[in-house]
Design brief:
- By secondary structure, the chain is mainly α.
- It has one domain.
- It has helices at residues 14-71, 75-151, 167-182.
- The longest helix has 77 residues, at 75-151.
- It is rod-shaped and about 120 Å long.
- The protein starts with 13 loop residues before the first helix and ends in a 5-residue tail after the last helix.
Length: 187
């Protein structure tokens, strides 16, 4: 059977891996902030427009009722104004409750968006770390092999994992290993 390669160390070559992670996370972070900014700003603008429209309509109705009260003659217009005033108060209360509900829902949406962006960035960083192993692992291994060559030590066959990069370089090192071993250079 084949042996599973288990990571015992997540940062094989920290300086290069951290640069790789930075190259993956910083653009994602910038894009997330830009998209989040425009999404949140447009949502806030939408809420402000809705609020202005609601209060504009209420002010307009109040103005009409005031004109009616000044023009009113007798008992009948006063009763109409009282009914309109009651309905306006109910409408105003309902609209304010609806607006407050929208504001709360928008706050929840912003929190969820912030959470998802954070999780996305962490996931992006984690994936960048895993993919950096495909580069940093082989380079580190080839460095150790080159050091063993300089010391004349025998080296086991050189094979990389299927996802690793620089396989052609590993093949060249393997040919060098076989050649040096056949010439008796390696102990």
């Amino acid at each position: 059977m084949f042996k599973l390669f288990r990571r015992t160390q997540y940062f094989i070559h920290p300086s290069s891996q951290l640069k790789y992670i930075e190259m993956a996370v910083i653009p994602a972070l910038l894009l997330s902030f830009i998209c989040g900014f425009f999404l949140i700003t447009s949502g806030d603008i939408f809420l402000m427009k809705e609020k202005a429209q609601i209060f504009g309509e209420i002010a307009s109705l109040q103005e009409v009722m005031q004109r009616l009260s000044f023009q009113g003659q007798g008992q009948k217009p006063g009763e109409t104004i009282a009914v309109l005033d009651k309905r306006l108060a109910i409408l105003q209360n309902n609209l304010e409750m609806e607006y407050f509900s929208m504001v709360q829902q928008w706050a929840k949406t912003k929190m969820l968006l912030s959470f998802l962006l954070g999780v996305g960035l962490l996931f992006s960083g984690f994936m960048a770390l895993l993919f950096s192993h495909r580069v940093a692992g082989p380079i580190c291994r080839l460095k150790k092999i080159a050091e063993m060559f300089t010391q004349g030590k025998d080296i086991p066959p050189i094979k990389f994992r299927t996802q690793d990069e620089f396989k052609e370089l590993a093949d060249i090192f393997e040919k060098l290993r076989v050649s040096l071993k056949s010439k008796g250079v390696l102990k």
